[in-house]
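Much of what follows relies on a compact textual record of a protein's fold. A record is reproduced here so that you can trace the correspondence yourselves:
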Amino acid sequence: MGPQRAVAAVSAITSVHTVRADYRASDGDLVERAREGEHGAFDALFDRHYGRVYGFAFRLTHSAADSEDIAQQAFVRAYGALSRIEDGQALLRWLYRVVVNLVRDRAKRQARKPWVSFWDLRPRPAEGGSAAEPPEFADPGLDPHGIALREARSRALDRAIARLPLDQREVIALHHLEGMEVREISALLGVPEGTVKSRLGRARQRLREDLAEWLDEETTS
């Protein structure tokens, strides 16, 4: 199911009117108006956040079909739970939590995992590393060797992340790809901040070990 069909499916559930909500309104205002029966308000929320929800699901599953289905399900659940969403401004975090739960439910059927920058795996000052700036790599452009190297590196990273437990993949995606702080991830997943830090640390260490050869090559290139 593509994004256009997902829009149509959610629109059918909300029985969308032709009058659209003010897209400049805050999430909190739109959630409140959707609770009061203004269907265009939920449409505005869907249009505003579908891309990010889909993107987050894709980073966890690496499957376009699964991600579209999961994103659609998340919004359907949000519509059904409008009366129970206490903080409308936190809707996106609520949707992320639903995505995490849906992905966990499908975890045994998933084979592809999220992507994270190699540079993010390097030791940080707090972990005993230096505070060096990320190196500037030449754009491989149309250079066949550069393109092949980049693709091989990405495949190696995919395989390494595929071996991580799901709880570690979740924090890697939320922190490195969604840019969320540890405290935000803690609230979203419902675990202590120390647990988030521990999972991030273990995940980075495992990836460094699996990708040592590639990381060394980047250092010397």
